[in-house]
Amino acid sequence: MTQPRLAHQTPSGRMYARSLSGLPEVPSITTVIGMEKTDLDGWIGWMAADAVVKDERLAQAVGSSARLREVARQSADAAARFRDAAAERGDRVHDYAEQVSRRALGQPHTMAEARAALIEHGEGAYADRFDEWWDLYDVRPVAAEITVWNHTVGYAGTLDLVARIGGRLCLIDYKTKGTGRDGRVKALDPKVVMQLTAGLKAEESLVDAEAGTWEPWQHGAAEMLLGVALGETEVAVHQANPAVLPRHWHKFWALRQVWTHAQAVADAGPALRVIGPPPVAVPAAAAGGLEAARAAAFGGAAEPTGTGSAAAEAGPADRVTA
Fold first, then answer.
1. How far is the C-alpha of 80 from the C-alpha of 92, rounded, in Å?
2. Domain locations in the chain?
């Protein structure tokens, strides 16, 4: 898969620059969507436990705490290893899909090499199913791996494919999926609708990465947004329901604001600081001095005395507003 040339991995997530010589400016679409955390604790625990049960050394390790710890230690990262392997497989499948598009567009391509890489890893069925889908749906590509930018909200991303299917202009996002016990490709995550909607709402598309040349986004009137699940046994095509697109766009917008505030909090410095106990009690005659001591210890001014004072009625001068 061609990596977006303007994308950068940063401590704030994946971000995009305007040119090859520019600095990262806005978060990627997937980074924004990632602000909504998914609870994977159960899956991670299951993967680790499953790896232990399937470890060939388990029978010999029973009765030896040292050997059992070794098995457990090497099984603890089973979920991460599975995730990384799935990501590598997804890159190979996406690369093949891109090369098919490039060939159809009359552009230089490495389709044969991409297919060979899949076969080498025992994944040739993904290419076969993709070819069947491509022909069955009579896909007519317009642009592949196109980088887009939205200035108003502040994000960028790269779309897998813009194509015409059945005479309709479609924005398409590929997702490589495993196969369920029923032999069918696994379902797509509904978050793909946010990803497609953000692509639809782009304002510019990249023309030349090195020069940093952009043009107005020409496909914002696409008629269909499609999530395409690529599997070994089949390809399942899902259309984003037009009736729900505004809600998913509003959610994406809100997550973009969360990203902004998360960066502001991270840049603000430590959120907590250690303070000592208040001063010990002193005789009543020194009460005035005690108030000053308390104020100094807690970093504020002495509280006003008396009732109905202007200071008491005004409220905090640095009240936080949202």
1. 19
2. 7-265
CB 118 within 8 A of CB 92: yes
**The sheet that has 235-239: what strands, in order across it?**
213-216, 204-208, 140-150, 155-165, 168-176, 224-230, 235-239
* Ranges 57-66, 71-80, 103-112, 284-293: which has the least confidence: 284-293
The predicted-structure confidence for 2-54, as pLDDT tens digits, reads as follows 568 899 999 999 999 999 999 999 999 999 999 997 655 675 565 666 666 67
β-sheet bridge partners, residue 164: 140, 169
- pTM to 2 decimal places: 0.75
Dist. CA 279–CA 277, nearest whole Å: 7
> How is residue 162 written in tokens?
């813009």
What is the C-alpha to C-alpha distance for residues 37 and 3, in angstroms, rounded to an integer? 24
- What is the share, in percent, of the chain residues with pLDDT greater than 90? 66
Number of other CB atoms surrounding residue 148 within 10 Å: 26
